[in-house]
Amino acid sequence: MTIRADVTVLGAGVNGMSTAYELCKRGRSVVLVDKVVMGAGASGSCDDMILLQSKKPGILLEMAFRSLELFRDLEKELPCDIEFDTRGGTILIETPEELAVMEDFVASQNRHGLAVEIVDARRIRELHPHVTDRVIASTYSARDSQVNPMLLMKGFFLGATAKGLTFLRRSRPESLSPRNGRWEIKLSTGETLETGSVVNAAGAWANEICGLLGLEFPIAPRKGQVLVTEQLPPLGATNVWSAQYIVSKLRPAGVPAPGAAPWMSGPEEARKAADFGLGFAFTGTHSGNYLIGSTRENAGFDKTTVPEALGLLARQVIHYFPVMKDVHFIRTFAGLRPSTPDGMPVIGEVPGFPGFFMAAGHEGDGIALSPITGRVTADLVEGRKPEFSLESFRPERFLEGQGDLDEAASG
Amino acid sequence: MDREENYICRCEEVTEEEIRAAIRGGARSVQEIKRWTRSGMGICQGRTCRRLVERILAEELGLSPGEAEPSSFRPPVRPVSLDSMDGSKE
Ligand SMILES: Cc1cc2nc3c(=O)[nH]c(=O)nc-3n(C[C@H](O)[C@H](O)[C@H](O)COP(=O)(O)OP(=O)(O)OC[C@H]3O[C@@H](n4cnc5c(N)ncnc54)[C@H](O)[C@@H]3O)c2cc1C
Ligand code: FES
């Protein structure tokens, strides 16, 4: 069977679904294809934060601001509740050294229009009565928000379906061929798609699709493991991170990583935590389950959770919130963030392959950035000028030396 | 029995009507139903409700159970206290 449409979107995570939704809204006919089901990738195995505070001033912060506005519209516009909520966020600070780094960071954020303050030990205990005595200060940003990624995907799906979306599950492209200015896509389930454009939104798996064209991007899975607790009464006012991780991310090249955290048994455990890329993110969902994360591991496409990493996550949360020691966890999961070497997603048309667009590589920000990603990708597909300069996201930056692209396309 | 009271997922209090509504809305897998309705996300991690959800899914799609859901099922953990994960105490 041949299905003709305007656009094929490959990958039903938040970014593919946001793009499909936006295109359907603009009256385009869209076929969305996923090799598993919706949410089978990172978007079904992640936290729920729309985090502004973690970002250095720059294009990603600008886009996160815009997404926040768009989430407010989506909340009204999508056919189901998406549990969007602005609870604010805090980054816990334990040492004077961390405080010094965070003060500089926060000052630069304020200069760029993101209001963040440093609050003292007393104020942080008002926000988080259960926090450990070791915390000497914290950041506070009132605008950090949350959205339920599962419901966001459901909303995009229902909204797009109402406007004619075709969704093919458990199917993947086996070939992609340019034909008379359009694309012919043969699917593993037997259908042939014939569409004007193709959007690759397959997250960490984007190269499975690029490989069909002889292309390869340095988009690699970065695994994050998470513990899910039983349902609890609210423990505090905001989402929480620790400064330790952000400070280690911000430290200038050449400055050694900080030593063992106070809760670690010694250098051996500090090394293990560093190997797992351990960070601290603690967020309460609408249903009352808390998510305790997470790691950042280069471990290929393996999605198993390992007791060693979960043990570190458990001890870390008990360190910050001693009451957690009596809490049960009911589930663990791992997700694969689509990471790139420069921390920027790949969004744009691939030179030499007219009508083939990339929208992948959002690493730890894909939920937060999905509304704006859908918009700008739809603009590109329609040949309109997007509302942001996508200069930093251009696919070209990773394609130097991959042969003559024009020749590849005509061959 | 009042249909509203017909809970398929007792842990998360999801009714049969809600499961059927999700399928009619376009959910086509246990994973999708779980993500939309929370059925299977409760403290028993679907031990009680998963089979029932599979059966309703098959019924709504006119398939035999098993046909509707080819994906694999990860065995859930039993609730474990965070403290017992503390390897340094063993
Ligand atoms: C532990 C953890 C916590 C996180 N917390 C946050 C957070 O708080 N806030 C935030 O903004 N982000 C967070 N993220 C990041 C976020 O989850 C990702 O950036 C985002 O989900 C990526 O979405 P995507 O649509 O680009 O890709 P994915 O959701 O990975 O979707 C890709 C889809 O493509 C499909 N696919 C793969 N190969 C093929 C193929 N060959 N053909 C067809 N389909 C294919 C897959 O099945 C999958 O459904 C977190 C991630 C993790 C792992
Ligand atoms: S009955 Fe559904 S999770 Fe327990």
Q: Overview of this structure, please?
A:
The complex is a heterodimer of chains A (411) and B (90). Chain A has 411 residues and is α/β, with parallel strands linked by helices. Chain A is elongated. In chain A, helix 1 (14-25) runs parallel beside helix 5 and helix 3 crosses helix 7. Chain A has helices at 14-25, 59-77, 96-111, 121-127, 149-162, 206-210, 243-250, 267-276, 307-320, 366-381, 405-410; strands spanning 2-10, 30-33, 49-50, 89-93, 117-120, 137-141, 145-146, 166-168, 173-179, 182-187, 192-200, 220-231, 239-242, 281-284, 289-293, 328-339, 346-349, 356-360. Chain B has 90 residues and is mostly helical. Helix content of chain B is 33%, strand content 8%. The model of chain B has no long low-confidence stretch (mean pLDDT 83). Classes of the chains: A alpha/beta (411), B mainly alpha (90). Chain A binds chain B through residues 36-40, 44, 150-151, 153-154, 157-158, 161, 167, 169-170, 227, 229-231, 265, 287, 289, 307-308, 310-311, 313-315, 317-318, 324-332, and chain B through 12, 25-26, 28-29, 31-32, 35-36, 38, 41-43, 45, 70-71, 76-77, 79-83, 85-88. Strand 16 of chain A pairs antiparallel with strand 3 of chain B. The complex binds flavin-adenine dinucleotide (FAD) and FE2/S2 (inorganic) cluster. FE2/S2 (inorganic) cluster binds next to loops of chain B.
Biggest sheet descriptor of chain A: 8 strands, mixed
Rg on CA atoms of chain B, Å: 15 Å
CATH homologous superfamily label of chain B? BFD-like [2Fe-2S]-binding domain
Structurally, the number of domains of chain A stands at 2
Overall mean pLDDT of chain A:
93
Largest sheet of chain B: 2 strands, antiparallel
Strand content of chain B: 5-15%
Structure classification of chain A:
alpha/beta
CATH topology of the largest domain in chain A: FAD/NAD(P)-binding domain
Q: Please report the number of helical segments of chain B.
A: 3
- The secondary-structure element order of chain B is EEHHHE
Q: Mean of the pLDDT scores of chain B?
A: 83
Mass-distribution shape of chain B = elongated
Report the strand count of chain B: 3
CATH superfamily annotation of the largest domain in chain A: FAD/NAD(P)-binding domain
CATH class category of chain B: Mainly Alpha
Characterize the overall form of chain A.
elongated
> What's the architecture of chain B, going by CATH?
Orthogonal Bundle
